[in-house]
Amino acid sequence: MPETFSLLDEQWIACSMPDGSVCELSIRRLFDGSAAPVEIRGDSPTQDYAVLRLLLAIFWRAHRHEADVAPGQTFEMEDWFDTAWQDAQDGGVDEAVLTYLDEHRARFDLLDPVAPFMQVAGLRTAKDQWSPISRIIPEAESEFFTTRAGAGRESIGLAEAARWVVHTQSYDYSGIKSGAEGDPRVKGGKGYPIGTGWTGSTGGTVVLGSTLRETLVLNTVSACLRAGDADVPVWEREPDGPAERPVPVPQGPADLATWQSRRIRLMVEADRAVGVLVCNGDRIPDAGKDVRADPMTPYRFSANQTKKNQPPVYYARPHDTDRTMWRSLEPLIVLDGEQSRAAFAPLRPGTLTSLAELESPFVSTEQRIVDLRLISASYGPQASSHATTVDARIELPRAVLAPGNGGLRRAVLDTAAATQDAAVALGRYAGNLLVAGGGEYSFLAAPTDGMLTQLEGAFRRWLRDLTTDAVEASIREWQDEVLRRIDEEAQVMLRGAGPKALIGREVLVNGTSQIRSAGSAYRHLHADLRAALPSATAHAEPTQTSTPDHQETNR
Questions:
Q1: Residue 506 lies in a domain
Q2: What's the number of domains the chain is made of?
Q3: Which of 304, 336, 319, 291 lies closest to 204, judged by CA?
Q4: Contact (Cβ atoms closer than 8 angstroms) between residue 520 and residue 502
């Protein structure tokens, strides 16, 4: 077993490079000017996000002194951003970060005997039990390791182990854990559920730059630099023991970015991690109620938790696993106080509000389009297992985020809602074709989801190219496109409905006899589309081919 594995010097962060290759870099190399990675590209999207937030905590803490001002003066985020952005583009040495890393070098050793990185030295259970290393690799508990043979099923290198330790602190599922000796919460040798890792409850929203260094700047808000003295990452405080920290609430962005939801200890043999112990760590109080210090997630309003005549209560909002782009728009762009379908609008990520409000010339000229990566995890029943991962990209015109452009935001949200309503109409149409063919009505989600998937790329392009001086024309063009695509799909479904559906059948509706046929279903679809897409200019009545004469004679 090696005596040390310093995350500052060892190559462990998997990054994509400008030439498209992927290589592993140390933390120091990310900031010493010797490499220019584009982005983190590790073993999974959630791992990428967890490691990015680790780097952000380093970046925020290293540059926090730059927010200090003399009495009577005000910190200007625009000035800080201009300087930081220029430094990031130059790609030179970040002296502030390197100095900071030297100050905390001892705490970044994965194998330190006293304070191993994001672990607890001497952590053990009463029976000295260990889990296989696959315990901290989400895919390994299903099918991931089936592609590995021999030792690959039983051990991983220390670089990969470091990445998964960071991921586990951020995203570990809830459920019963091994009971750590020295943790008073343990009962009968078991640690009972305390919830997922903090990041697993959020909707990770990354503002992407053209390089990793730019991304770090774009995801820094004033509150990250000006947080109080209590907001420190795990490596700036005393090493954790097996028990929970006596801290009632998270203290700020850096604390949340490195929140130790688990107590972990790696078992290492030679230069491989062969086992792991995962126990309960620090619980997020009240399931995250009003924990709003994370600038990289939207927040949802909770009507159930909000008391009469009391301030509204919010929880971090994960991104939807279904129809992600369509359902994520409102929590990403709406401003607090703007009209929403809920009693209170969601809160968008602080990074987007900060970027919208910056008057920096670099933002004005180089960030007309805000490139976002959305990363989120979902869990199984009782959040006791990993389920699926959201990894989506979306480009927003910065104008959509600007405080004075509420009308533009409403136009975007209304257009997205209209598109979804039109796609839902296609699902109803499919159900009506079942009735026409002799079956029972059932809304079919597959045509709706398929159409939204088909439209997603085009909508992304429409949104990216949207400008404030041609909103109505853009909406008309988009609704015409939606109408055209849905009608094309409806015609295909009509031709495949079969002779019974074309002829139709008599049904009783509220005591009245009606003929339900493929043609009547098609007409109902277009009535729905006229309601959903009022700005479309291409609405037309069903053609003679689509509505055969014999359908009318059978009424």
A1: yes
A2: 2
A3: 319
A4: no
Residue type, 465: D
Amino acid at 431: G
Domain extent, residue 359, equals 299-406
- How many Cβ atoms are within 10 Å of 273's Cβ, its own excluded? 23
What does the pLDDT look like over 163-204, one tens digit per residue? 999 999 999 999 999 999 999 999 999 999 999 999 999 999
pLDDT at 145: 46
d(CA 96, CA 58): 10
Q: How confident is the model at residue 546 (pLDDT cuts 50, 70, 90)?
A: very low
Q: How far from 431 is each of 314, 445, 485, 525, CA to CA, in Å?
A: 38, 9, 19, 11
- Average pLDDT of the chain is 92
Q: Kindly state whether residues 441 and 454 are assigned to the same domain.
A: yes
- Contact of 526 with 486, CB cutoff 8 Å: no
Which residues have C-beta within 8 Å of that of residue 193, sequence separation ≥ 6?
174, 175, 176, 177, 382, 383, 384
Amino acid at 133: I
Of the residues 380, 406, 432, the one at which a domain ends: 406
- Which among 43, 64, 62 has a CA at the least distance from the CA of 54? 62
Do strands 313-316 and 262-269 pair parallel, antiparallel, or not at all (unpaired)? unpaired
- Same-domain status, 427 and 546: yes
Burial of 509 (0-12, 13-18, 19+ CB in 10 A): exposed
- For residues 416 and 549, membership in a common domain is answered with yes
Q: Which amino acid is at 400?
A: V
DSSP 300-354: EEETTTPPTTSPPEEEE-PPPSSSHHHHHHHHHHPPTTS--SSSSPPBPPHHHHH
DSSP string, 116-142: -TTS-TT---TT---EEGGGG-GGGGT
Q: Are 163 and 53 in contact (CB under 8 A)?
A: no
Q: How many CB atoms lie within 10 A of CB 132?
A: 17
Q: CATH number, domain at 452?
A: 1.10.132.100
